[in-house]
Amino acid sequence: MVRRQFESYLVKVFGFADLVAALSEGRTYPLHAWRKVFDAVFLGSACQLASTHRIEFESRAGVLSKRIGPLVEDTLGYAMQRQDPQAIFELGSTIAKRLKKNGVLGSEWARGRVVAAVDGIEICSSYARCCDTCLERKIQRKVDGETRECLQYYHRVSAVTLVSTPFPVFLGIRFQQAGETEVAASLDLLQQLVGQLGRRFIDVLVADAIYLQTPFVRAIELLDLEWVISLKDNQPALLAEAERLTVAPAVCQWSAGNDNFSLWHLPEVEWPVADRMVRVVKTVRVQKVKRVKIERIGERREKKKEEVPVHSTNFYATNVNLGAIPPQFIQRLGRSRWTIDAAAFQTLTTQCHLKQPSVHQDVALVVLTMIRVIRVLAYTLMMVFYHRQVRSHCRKAPPSFCEVARSLALALFTPGADTG
Hints:
Layout: H1 2-14, H2 16-21, H3 34-46, H4 52-61, H5 73-81, H6 85-101, E1 115-126, E2 135-143, E3 146-162, E4 169-175, H7 182-197, E5 204-207, H8 214-222, E6 226-230, H9 236-244, E7 252-256, E8 259-271, E9 276-297, E10 300-318, H10 328-335, H11 338-350, H12 364-390, H13 401-413
Parallel strand pairs: 1-5, 5-6
Antiparallel strand pairs: 1-3, 2-3, 3-4, 6-10, 7-8, 8-9, 9-10
């Protein structure tokens, strides 16, 4: 039932089968059609299969054997190597447009704005395996008991993810190239997405402090985007001025659960490097955390739990025009950036195996890109199915995301699962 429900949902809501069938074939005389290869990687990713080697095994004698049939790992790599990654990127954009049309991207807290986070993540690090497009760095590591400087090969990807939605929705990923910074790769991805999806698809961009750079800020403002970016010591002059202006008592205080918040709002602070004024919001969070304390009583030692306050301070720089909106909204926008780390990247790496170095060979970048984009697409559609069809219809405690993936794998493997 799960397989029939999942694939029927994709066909009904997105016309997914027709979209995949329309993808062009990059080979002249294919032994296995591109649709079959795509379905193997897509369904394998939806079932959380870790690698193309595992997909090969499952297509021969496992969960994909009845739906896909025998397919070797070399065929997967050869087929993806000859496809155009742009076609998969456009497929993902088509899915995102349909999600917005269906109201999936709405938010109860973002005041009608679509909020996206941009960030980078490292994948495929190795001291032995590499390809022509690997990034390189020197790492101090122990080899045979001695500390040596070794050359490490790795890849990084930049991702843009909607975080104002009830669950994170990836809009796109892009591999960082040699000699290119994460910020430059992310900006190029943003420009591609705005060109593909249109200006009104993203309203506010949130990011970590590494993105608070004059060229990046100017570029995203040319895209007509509002932004909220963490302010740290990589902008010392702006941070020092913000700290100087917030020595007075906080203008706003509130509590949420066991946490107490204090907020300072600075409508105009000079940013000397960029030769402009920006809005800055400072927040101090006091969180009550239980810590174990060991006390010595005579010759005995006893463990006791006690609550201790933990302080954390955050600064956010922004160009958002608040108007009548309270400044707590900036703090909410800034904190939403953690969704891409705590939810999106966490799920992709632990359950969807984003970091698995599949077919990492001499001409692997196209293959890696294809696999990662298809994995992200499968993650997004499985997440939509999970929230819109599984959780929303459960009268009791809903299954976990991982349990739904296992149920899909079982349904693919069990004879007659789609006929009952």
